[in-house]
Write a structure and sequence with these properties.
The complex is a heterodimer of chains A (about 280) and B (about 250). Chain A is of the alpha/beta class and about 280 residues long. Helix content of chain A is about 35%, strand content about 20%. Chain B folds into 2 domains: about 35 residues; about 210 residues, Orthogonal Bundle (MetI-like fold), CATH 1.10.3720. Classes of the chains: A alpha/beta (about 280), B mainly alpha (about 250).
Chain lengths: ~280, ~250
């Protein structure tokens, strides 16, 4: 049984503990239910606790369908928790979006097909009603290796290039919080590894509070300061570990026994996570 | 190469077959005296002053249809955008559009003659038809933006009007042009019908007077002109639609 049918005649009361002062992301006792047919609902998350300290890079690992993307959507303010509290910098997450201080890269690149790559990366400025900082846009395009492709349209680029443009767009306004929902999920293994290296390089330049959702163990170990493994649905935190491998974590790191040991532990954890559901 | 040449030949063959059929039915009076041969209709344009009369009427109808197209499109765009920005208004807008479209135009004639006058009636009737088509096209077009695109605008903290301008309008453009390809002929038809209610000039006027005086070739020159005008509008907007779809899809 992976789904729980819960009778919920009325909505669960939302108890919101006093927000922590300071920044970072905090989820406490978060549950999320999706209503299905009449009076039944699907419980995607159940009493999840998760914290991301300011400037920390946390990877959320879990089997597919465990609700990792739901966690990210809650933190992005795209959905509301059924119970528990979600705070970003001590306030409701939608607040951060309204202040244009949130960067999100989704599974699909979600670039606007009618706009050039440059306009897509400049979009956050326009949405925020600020003058477009051309220097910043140029720098970002160079940073993600898309210099020279400014005037191309998304469909003229490869999948990897589109994802890089989407990441540049997420970084445009110097966000305080960066959310990445399997941004490289659709890429082949080689491109994916290269993108991981680039993301690590970009992140090391400006350590933004980052939450990465992924099912790729290597990716999590290469990028994160800390890894949180979730159980199968309904999602809970099963295991947390810090990654002590020093940065920068280049290709040589992937050959160390330390790296392999951690990957093996986490992979085993993911395997059994499916069963505990 | 050969295949594509053949494919281009088919529509030409189709038109020729249709013209021949019309001519034959008229020539042998297979459908009675009110179906003239095409050649006779064209020959009638050679009578003194006739071509001038038809062209002048065509111009009047084209102007009324174009004005109706613009008016109807503007109103439909405003209505569809309102339905989007004020979700409470959406079902009301849908029903209003459906009701306006269901009222028989003939019944509106006295009302329109009293309010906008005989000169304005063709434009308003054209706008009514156009408005409905465009409202339906835009209502679905404005919802065409993908879920993920909507999410991107939400996490960027977009205000409703910014979302409308930068996401929903561009995403609706192919639907808008699709609507125009249908609304163009609707405008011509609406203007022609509107002219029946006492407009000073136009193809509709010409059709009514030719019909009452049993001037069959004149009747058909007017009808043929209206048809060509409709087709022109359709072909024009379809072309633009294809170009836009290439960029916006």
């Amino acid at each position: 049984m992976t789904s729980t049918a819960v009778r919920s005649p009325q909505r669960l009361p939302i108890d919101r503990p006093a927000p922590v002062t300071g920044s970072g992301i905090a989820l406490r006792g978060v549950s999320k239910e999706y209503p299905l047919k009449r009076k039944t609902s699907l419980r995607a998350l159940d009493g999840l606790d998760l914290e991301v300290a300011p400037g920390e890079f946390v990877a959320l690992l879990g089997p597919s369908g465990c609700g990792k993307s739901t966690v990210l959507r809650l933190v992005a303010g795209l959905e509301e928790a059924s119970a528990g509290a979600v705070d970003v910098e001590g306030r409701p997450p939608a607040q951060l979006a309204r202040e244009h201080r949130l960067g999100v890269a989704f599974q699909e690149h979600a670039l606007l097909p009618w706009a050039s790559i440059r306009s897509n990366v400049a979009l956050p400025f326009q949405v925020a009603g600020r003058p477009v900082d051309d220097r910043r846009v140029d720098d970002l395009l160079r940073l993600v290796g898309l210099g020279g492709f400014e005037n191309a349209r998304p469909k003229q680029l490869s999948g990897g290039m589109r994802q890089r443009a989407a990441i540049a767009r997420a970084l445009a306004l110097d966000p305080d919080v960066l959310l990445l929902d399997e941004p490289f999920g659709a890429l082949d293994a080689v491109t994916r590894r290269r993108m991981n290296a680039e993301l690590a390089r970009i992140w090391s330049e400006q350590q933004i509070t980052t939450l990465l959702v992924t099912h790729d163990v290597d990716e999590a170990v290469l990028l994160a300061d800390r890894i949180v493994v979730m159980t199968g649905r309904p999602g809970r935190v099963r295991y947390t570990c810090t990654v002590d491998i020093p940065r920068p974590r280049g290709a040589d790191v992937t050959r160390t026994p330390e790296f392999h040991g951690l990957v093996d532990t986490l992979t085993a954890m993911l395997d059994s996570a499916d069963e505990t559901a | 190469m050969r295949g594509s040449a053949l494919r281009r030949l088919y529509p030409v063959l189709g038109v020729i077959a249709l013209v021949v059929l019309v001519e034959v039915v008229g020539r042998f009076e297979l459908a009675g005296k009110s179906w003239p041969p095409l050649t006779e209709v064209l020959a009638s344009l050679g009578q003194p002053g006739r071509l001038d009369l038809v062209l002048r009427s065509l111009g009047a109808t084209a102007v009324a249809a174009a004005a109706g197209l613009v008016l109807g499109t503007v109103l439909a765009t405003a209505g569809a955008a309102l339905g989007l920005l004020v979700p409470v208004a959406r079902p009301g807008m849908d029903r209003l559009a459906a009701i306006l479209n269901a009222v028989p135009l003939i019944a509106l004639a006295p009302l329109l003659i009293m309010t906008v006058g005989r000169e304005g009636t063709p434009t308003v009737i054209a706008a009514l038809g156009v408005g409905f088509v465009m409202f339906v096209a835009l209502s679905s077009g404005l919802l065409a933006a993908s879920r993920t695109h909507q999410d991107v605008f939400t996490v960027l903290g977009a205000a409703r009007l910014t979302r409308l301008r930068r996401l929903q309008f561009p995403a609706a453009l192919p639907y808008f042009l699709d609507g125009l390809a249908l609304a163009g002929p609707t405008a011509v038809l609406g203007a022609t019908i509107g002219e029946w209610f006492g407009a000073p000039s136009g193809l509709g006027v010409l059709i009514v007077s030719a019909m009452q005086n049993f001037q069959i070739p004149l009747l058909w020159s007017a009808a043929l002109s209206a048809t060509l005008l409709s087709l022109l509008a359709y072909v024009l907007f379809s072309r633009v639609q294809v170009l836009a779809a290439r960029r916006f899809a």
